[in-house]
Write a structure and sequence with these properties.
There is one protein chain. A four-stranded antiparallel beta sheet has the order 1-2-4-3, with helices on both faces. Helix 2 crosses helix 7 and helix 5 packs antiparallel against helix 6. The chain has helices spanning about 5-10, 25-35, 55-65, 70-75, 90-100, 110-120, 125-150, 160-165, 200; strands spanning about 50-55, 75-85, 150-155, 175-185. With about 200 residues, it is an alpha+beta fold.
Length: about 200
């Protein structure tokens, strides 16, 4: 099986070393996030936010909160991928463009909103789980979008969530799920590390 997408998945690696002299234009960052937001979310609530830390001061501040890992400042941009606790009240607004596009009946929205309300209202753990899932889908799509632009990326969970929340002004309903350092990799990065055999991780039921 050969396809540009599967080829990209096969070639993807987690870069640790970036060329600090190479930057990204804001327009490129906007384009990357436009692709990241194509990732799926429950009820199409799109409960995520992306903070693109690309200034020298911002990257230094973030590096202090990320175990002083050099890739935070060496990468052209380090994204803080934020999951937002979902609210059923957003449903109509988030689905209206689908109605306007002509493929979703307007009468379907109340049932989706009721289902979201049943799932999330009074269920903080479910809300948090959904925030983490949505942000993770977004981060994964962001990394593949970057690879399509000739960029490398490194997903990072080694950081102080409370510190990032405070330093970058996250709201009480926002969860800093991961960092994604992205930029131009140097030649000394490892290739993708071998994976476990499929037989060890797949069960056919």
């Amino acid at each position: 099986m050969s396809h540009p997408l599967t080829d990209a998945i096969a070639a993807r690696n987690s870069a640790n070393f970036f060329d600090p002299a190479r930057t990204l234009e804001d327009e490129t960052i906007h384009t990357l996030i436009s692709w990241a937001t194509r990732a799926p979310t429950a009820f199409n609530l799109q409960n995520w936010r992306f903070i693109a830390v690309r200034s020298d001061a911002g990257k230094r501040r973030l590096r202090e909160l990320a175990w002083n890992q050099p890739k935070v400042t060496d990468a052209a941009v380090t994204f803080i991928v934020v999951g937002v606790l979902p609210q059923a009240a957003w449903t109509a607004d988030r689905l209206q463009p689908s109605v306007a596009a002509g493929f979703m009946p307007a009468g379907m929205i109340p049932s989706w909103e009721a289902a979201a309300s049943q799932l999330y209202t009074g269920a903080p753990q479910t809300q948090r789980d959904e925030a983490v899932r949505s942000a993770t889908f977004g981060a994964s799509t962001l990394m593949l979008a970057g690879q399509a632009q000739g960029l490398s990326a490194s997903p990072m969970t080694g950081f102080d969530p409370a510190g990032v929340t405070s330093a970058f002004g996250l709201q009480p309903d926002e969860v800093p799920v991961m960092l994604v350092a992205m930029g131009y990799a140097t030649p000394d990065n490892w290739p993708q590390k071998p994976r476990r055999p499929v037989a060890d991780v797949l069960e056919l039921a």
